[in-house]
Every structure is written in structure tokens, then in C-alpha cells.
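To close the section, here is one more complete example, presented without commentary so you can practise reading it yourself. The ligand is NAP.
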Amino acid sequence: MENTFNFNNELSGKIALVTGGTKGTGKAIAERLEAAGATVIITARNPPEQPNAKQHFIAADLTKASGTEKVVNEVLEQFGKLDILVNNLGGSETKSGGYSVLNDKDWLHSLENNLLAPVRLDRGFLPQMVEQKSGVIVHIASIQGKLPLYDSTLPYAAAKAGLINYSKGLSNEVAPKGVRVLTVSPGWINTSASKAMMERIAESSNTTIEEATKSVMDALGGIPIGRPAQPEEVAELIGFLVSPRANYLTGTEFIIDGGTLPTI
Ligand SMILES: NC(=O)c1ccc[n+]([C@@H]2O[C@H](COP(=O)([O-])OP(=O)(O)OC[C@H]3O[C@@H](n4cnc5c(N)ncnc54)[C@H](OP(=O)(O)O)[C@@H]3O)[C@@H](O)[C@H]2O)c1
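Output:
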């Protein structure tokens, strides 16, 4: 096959939305897509600490239906279309202590943050993607979808497992209509969120951050590559997946975890 790919400006003319694009992994993804030539829109509840004039920011709480509706309306009104949707928003704020310390509020928040927000955004943008017969949707899940850590993140792990399953089903439905749907499941990424999680575990189990970090490392069974991922390493995979170089990929989950998952 003749190689006709343009690696430098390969996303030129594309409109891309990255949820949770102001910090951590989402920020790195937004920068990676911008570097490939896309027009990038980012969302979060608060504006980025250091605004990037080239990126368009929309403030919205995506755990609420009104927030996702606001984003869909603003993007389609201002840009007329969306080509790339990276559902990066997600995370866990539940305390440690296992199932018995969690209430419905904890469960609902994890489900809204990690599962319902992407479901609602996909539902809002898909009609236009199907109409233009092209588009790429990426769901950022987690290795916890397969390796649930029960002490502090039971609802998060269950929501991510649901997201992985939903992503596959959606791909089956919309791939014949020209839209690719993919899942990326990272292991530990070095972000402020993962640092905050260690602080929470240390506080609720009355240990130090070092001990909390070790307990999570032990629960994961270690990271064979010897360190957490940098956000830019995850962003690089997504840069490839949304590009025309990945045109034959849909319905697949990509695990990026430095070898953490112990099984095939
Ligand atoms: N970090 C890890 O070790 C790790 C491991 C596996 C998977 N992941 C997954 O990777 C993705 C990114 O994680 P991260 O650690 O990079 O996140 P992060 O650094 O905590 O960033 C979260 C982003 O989401 C925004 N956000 C949070 N709550 C929101 C809400 N209710 N509505 C709208 N925006 C909201 C934040 O901005 P505001 O606070 O201003 O709203 C911020 O931009 C998530 O899906 C996560 O589950 C992370």
C-alpha cells in the first residue's frame, strides 16, 4: 500500500474536543492534537491556569445533563461540526475503606463522571458525525476496568468497565456509518489527580503518602516498566488513534500501562 499519510499537519481542518482538557492527561492530549493541526476545544469547570490562546475553552460541569448539553450546543453553533471527541474526563473521589463506606451519592457521582458524561456527549455529537459520514470518538477508561482496586475506587472501576463495554457496542453500531469508536485504558499516570488520590488514601487510612503509594503499587502488582506514565505518553497514543493512520481501527481497547496488567 502506498504511504500517503502526512505526519506533520495530519489533523489540519479537523475540529477536536477534549473533555477535562485543562489539566493532566487531557491537557497533554489537547496540546498533542493542536500540534497535529487540529482546532482544539477544551472543557472543564474552571478555566486553565495558563490559558492557551489557540484553544477554545468552554466552562461546564459535565456530570450534569445541562453541562453536556451546553457543550454540544456551543461547539455545533460556533464550529458547525465536530470531527474528534476525546472523552477524557473521569476520575475518582471516593474515600478508602471498601464497599461499606460508600453510599448512593458516591456511586452516582462516579457513574456520572466516568460513564454518563461520555454517553451524553456521544449522543449529542453522533448525529452530525453520522451525517458527515466521518468522526472519531475516544473513551479514556482505565486498567481498573479489568483490575478493580476495591479499597478506594470500587465505583470508579465499575464505571470504567461499563465504559469499555459501551464503547465496543457503540463501535459496532456506528462503524458502518463512518464513525470510529475506540477505548484507551491507561495504568497509573503521573498527574495531580493521581497525587491527590494518594493524599486521600493516606489521610483516610492514617498513613503517609509514601505508604499509600506503596499500597496502591502493591495492589496493582507493580509496574514492570518501573514508573507511572507521563501524560504526554498517553497523549501520543491518542494522537495516533484519531489520525488517518488509524483509519482501520475501531471497537478496540488500547491498554497503556507499562506492563501493569498481569494477564493477556
Ligand atoms: N491519573 C491516572 O493515574 C489515571 C489512570 C488511569 C486512567 N485515568 C483516566 O484518565 C483520564 C484523565 O485523568 P487525569 O488524572 O489526567 O485527570 P485530572 O488531572 O484530574 O484532570 C481532570 C480534568 O477534568 C476536569 N473536570 C473534573 N471534574 C469535572 C466535571 N465535573 N465537569 C467537567 N470537567 C471536570 C478538571 O478540571 P476542573 O476541576 O476545573 O473541572 C480537569 O481538567 C480520566 O478519565 C481518568 O479516569 C487516569
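Once you have examined the C-alpha cells, check your reading against these statements. Residues 20, 22-26, 44-46, 61-63, 88-91, 140, 142, 186, 188-189, 191-194 surround NAP (CB under 6 Å). Residues 70 and 259 are 39 Å apart (CA to CA).
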